[in-house]
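From the shared-data thread, chain only:
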Amino acid sequence: METFHPSPVTMKVSMSPNVTKRKRRVFTPEFKAEAVRLVRDSGKTVAQVARELELTATCLRDWVNQAAADAKGAGQGALTTDERAELVRLRRELRRVEQERDFAKKCAAYFAKSPS
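Structure, as tokens:
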């Protein structure tokens, strides 16, 4: 018989000031890979493995789906981890370039209407 160990941090659904919020947990890539391997190799459902590892089924299912996208490689469908990281980097760079462009526009407009 397997025992379930509840998380030591609880979250109450209330707006009172003494609410304990669940802290966001960070997992290593090795832990995620092992959890995905357990789902794939053990024959257990995602929900069963998630309960054993004290994870949410949604979180573990996302890891399994991401691992499948990474294994499939580039192509149609979900982004691989590398593609997702590149997308984040490119969006950050785009935001910076747009700010520089907007600043240059404002400078040009300011100097254009200044009396010479």
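Helices lie at 29-42, 46-53, 57-72, 81-113.
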